[in-house]
């Protein structure tokens, strides 16, 4: 199934698709409490069965005519991974690590499908990064790798847009990875049963203005989804709605010689097989209200 979050009467709402139609389940899946975010949905016991029942007789919506929200906004953690594709590491200034390069993103940076990625006033070194996201569905700590995929509720897409000169101002990447309106996520959440275990073998491509810039397969990851979950859980308790943003393949603009960055009007489209396409247009911060 697919789950999306959208605006209805200026309030977040939730819709589910079991086929070709979308059904509003906001007030039908959580009893007396409206559910407006995938992270909230995943807290409900037997949430998949509840969603299936909630779609029966529910009002339909046209997903092409509503304003989408990031499907997951209220998860506790957004844990990103750098240098997780060999060819991408080769275009970076770093050696290939033998342990995942984890770093944090914050929910305050998130934007949805068809919203604008904002190129900040303080830098023109805005870059794209197309990535597969694994969404945790079951709380766990010290999770064995062989059981880690049982903790995944589903997947979505991330454009982990990065401001490169701020990323490299210090040994930690936090500032360059957390500018407002740079964490594009969506267009929706896809339940794990719709995809191969661990999101394995999926084609990932990024286009800018219709030209392919990244083209890879999730099998090319150095550390697969199960390994990332297991290692992260050695350090912290993973909870429903937490996102593991699993890294980007080669082809980013920083890797060009000379680098060539995104400008206002550029259209970024990230497609992952079995999930869909996340599309965002770049605009300058000066243009925002």
Walk me through the topology:
Blueprint: E1 2-8, E2 11-17, E3 22-24, H1 38-41, H2 47-55, E4 60-61, E5 68-69, E6 78-82, H3 86-90, E7 101-105, E8 110-111, E9 116-119, E10 126-127, E11 130-136, E12 152-160, E13 162-163, H4 164-167, E14 183-191, E15 203-208, E16 211-217, H5 225-235, E17 243-245, E18 267-272, E19 276-284
Parallel strand pairs: 6-17, 8-14, 9-19
Antiparallel strand pairs: 1-2, 1-5, 1-14, 2-3, 3-4, 6-7, 10-13, 11-12, 11-17, 12-14, 15-16, 15-18, 18-19
Structural overview:
The chain is mainly beta and 289 residues long. The chain has 2 domains: 2-67, no CATH class; 78-287, Alpha-Beta Complex (Fumarylacetoacetate hydrolase, domain 2). Helix content is 11%, strand content 34%. The chain contains 5 helices and 19 strands. The chain has helices at 38-41, 47-55, 86-90, 164-167, 225-235, and strands at 2-8, 11-17, 22-24, 60-61, 68-69, 78-82, 101-105, 110-111, 116-119, 126-127, 130-136, 152-160, 162-163, 183-191, 203-208, 211-217, 243-245, 267-272, 276-284. Strands 1, 2, 3, 4, 5, 6, 7, 8, 11, 12, 14 and 17 form a 12-stranded mixed sheet that branches. It has a 5-stranded mixed sheet with strand order 9-19-18-15-16, with no helix packed on it. Strands 10-13 form a two-stranded antiparallel sheet. It is globular. The mean pLDDT is 96.
